[in-house]
Amino acid sequence: MLVWLAELIGYANGSNLFRYITFRTLGATVTALLFVFLFGPRIIAALRLKQGKGQPIRSDGPQSHLLTKKGTPTMGGLMILSGFIVSTLLWSNWRNGYVWVVLLVTIGFGLIGFYDDYLKVTKQSHKGFSGKARLSLEALIAGVACWVLTRIGASPMSSSLALPFINGFVADLGIFFVVFGAFVITAAGNAVNLTDGLDGLAIVPVMVAAGTFALISYLAGNANYSAYLGINFVPGTGELAVVLGAVVGAGIGFLWFNAPPAAIFMGDTGSLALGGLLGTVAVAIKHEVVLGIVGGLFVLEALSVIVQVASFKMTGKRVFRMAPIHHHFEQKGWSEPQVVIRFWIIAFVLAMVGLATLKVR
Predict the structure, then answer these.
(1) DSSP class of residue 161?
(2) Per-residue pLDDT tens for 113-143?
(3) Under DSSP, is residue 4 helix (H, G, I), strand (E, B) or coil?
(4) DSSP-assigned letters across all residues of 177-241
(5) Going along the chain, which residue ranges are E strands?
(6) Do the Cβ atoms of 251 and 268 come closer than 8 Å?
(7) Looking at the DSSP assignment, which residues form a beta bridge with residue 53?
(8) Are the C-beta atoms of residues 248 and 211 closer than 8 Å to each other?
């Protein structure tokens, strides 16, 4: 909106700053942070009043959680999404199609997560929305988003897959790109969702990934920088840096309340939405493979669940003491802060490895 206002007055009286993505990214970060920080207590109070007993805790999980986390309200994703949406609409260029695609996927996944959280709270059970129905809706939203992305971008690049370690390699997937992209977005949403199991565990890696992709989006959307680095130039995607800046700001504000001991949980409302957002950005800027590196912690969490379920069904034995894998380390005697901080370190290291792919070509 501010871009439109600046254009309306002809970029006069210092408003020419709104031409710069870097300035608006910083503005989006600060705005989202302040919004969540200021309105967070009211949202938490309202959710605590509405939910009563708070998020139900798994009876088969770590026994300490039944004592330390019982009664804590969920749906904290509403705090993140409200700050994110307000900031994005305020600072982004509304004429950019990529912004709207990412925004709508985030809202769509957030609504699915909200319904799942609502069922869990009202039924006081950790089993919410039907898994098949939820995945079907996510895949539908992601598929439509990927189809729109192929319309927005220039053909054949808009429907192509690029590999980070091979300079100039581009494989045109045609219509199958929609299926591939939908898988990436849906998988990212659910991987972040599985990671959200301890205080502060998911939000920091999300912010790390968002900050990393903000830089990559800016570079991919700039013809000069993309040519210098040997990455694919995707016109218009630089604007996604503003969107991701809003994610970082909202995430920092949320972490203030989610830090141990958490006053509120993110819930599926936030984790599904943020994962879907990261997946959509990765598909838009042609860095789907890099998402698997930068978001490697999320991949590890998801794989631990897949391996655990597959092993138990085929052999009747469990590979991990408990899945997702962060609970495995809790069962081995790691304290919650140890698990969380060590996983944060892994996320930072993987982000640096992901950024290194920009020059390994």
Answers:
(1) E
(2) 999 998 888 876 666 678 889 999 999 999 9
(3) helix
(4) HHHHHHHHHHHHHHHHHHH--STTTTHHHHHHHHHHHHHHHHHHT-HHHHHHHTPPP-TTGGGHH
(5) 160-162, 170-172
(6) no
(7) none
(8) yes
